[in-house]
Design goal:
Blueprint (H helix, E strand, L loop, with lengths): L16 E5 L11 E5 L4 H10 L3 E6 L5
Antiparallel strand pairs: 1-2, 1-3
Protein name: Acetone carboxylase
């Protein structure tokens, strides 16, 4: 089984974090979408989502299975 990979463009590293977010213009307040992040891209993805007011929570990634 392949590991879950980081959501950063072009990154193929295994995910270590789940960034939970929503766009309040499109989603209900309780809806959470997920981006995965490796250690290297966690901060940049959090900054991208946070600057737009979308980031709700960052949690350690728990692979399914």
């Amino acid at each position: 089984m392949e590991p879950d990979i980081c959501s950063a463009k072009g990154c193929r590293n295994p995910a270590a974090w789940q960034l939970l977010w929503n766009n309040p213009k499109l989603h209900t307040p309780d809806r959470r979408k997920t981006w995965l992040a490796c250690e290297q891209h966690r901060e940049s993805l959090e900054h991208f989502l946070g600057a737009r007011g979308f980031l709700k929570e960052t949690l350690p990634h728990q692979p399914a299975g």
